[in-house]
Write a structure and sequence with these properties.
This protein has about 240 residues and is of the alpha/beta class. The chain has helices spanning about 30-45, 55-60, 65, 70-95, 115-125, 145-155, 185-195, 200-210, 225-230; strands spanning about 10-15, 50-55, 100-105, 115, 130-135, 160-165, 170, 180, 185, 215, 235. The chain has a nine-stranded mixed beta sheet with strand order 4-3-5-2-1-6-10-11-9, with helices on both faces. The protein has a two-stranded antiparallel ribbon with strand order 7-8.
Length: about 240
């Protein structure tokens, strides 16, 4: 079977919770290391690769303390947490010999680059993995929307969302044994059925930019590389 990637430039969206492993919150170093292996395998295929990582593993860990914090401030706290996750993933990737850059939508020159689209494209062309941090840099927008935005700006062939399950279901398959799994959906299907693949802003932006969304299980070793080849188990939204 062909080992040639179907998608040459992709953005991988990871949830912060995906980095927790079995912990209640925070980072699981073994999980981060294993995901870095998956990313390296795709990078070694010659794919131009960027990432957006959420912050649920850190910010939800302090959510009780943040309950009375004004929404805008709370959103900025979440953005800062994504930078922490980005730096952790950068460290894991560079330990494996993968050249990586972190670009933040909130300038913090001491720890990473500011987001500059042309510079990010140049990094991708040079074979570096680019991790986009701090969301869109604006409150009221999720990291899902940031992923759709960056995938559009980078002219990505696809936006891949790594989740806990192997695609999109009509309901949570862990709670509903009768949940139906979809192989293919349209953007309108997702919006009309409220399937919660990503938030509505992200779906609408991906639709308008013509970026397909592939949802797959990141925690199955080798699946990321298979999906980039256009094989394996996933749901495609297009």
């Amino acid at each position: 079977m062909s080992q040639t990637p179907k998608y040459r430039r992709v953005l991988l969206k990871l949830s912060g919770e995906g980095l927790m492993g079995d912990k209640a919150f925070g980072l699981c170093s073994e999980t981060v290391d294993r995901i870095a292996d998956e990313i390296k395998a795709v990078h070694d295929m010659g794919v131009q690769l960027s990432l957006v990582i959420g912050a649920g593993n850190i910010f939800r860990g302090v959510s009780d303390a943040a309950a009375n914090i004004e929404r805008t401030s709370a959103d900025y706290m979440g953005m800062l947490a994504t930078v922490m996750n980005a730096l952790a993933m950068q460290s894991a990737l560079e330990a494996k010999g993968v050249d990586t850059r972190v670009q933040s939508a909130i300038p913090m020159d001491t720890v990473c680059e500011p987001f500059i689209r042309r510079r990010a494209e140049r990094h991708l062309e040079k074979g570096r993995v680019v991790i986009f941090a701090a969301g869109t840099g604006n409150p009221f927008f999720t990291t899902d929307t940031a992923a759709a935005l960056r995938a559009s700006e980078m002219n990505c062939d696809a936006l891949l969302k790594g989740t806990q399950v192997d695609g999109v279901y009509s309901a949570d398959p862990k709670k509903d044994a009768n949940a139906e799994r979809y192989d293919t959906l349209t953007y309108q299907d997702v919006l009309a059925r409220d399937l919660r693949v990503m938030d509505t802003s992200a779906i609408a932006l991906a639709r308008d930019s013509g970026v397909p969304i592939l949802v797959f299980a990141l925690h199955t070793p080798g699946d990321f590389a298979e999906v980039v080849r256009g094989r394996g188990t996933f749901t495609i939204v297009k």
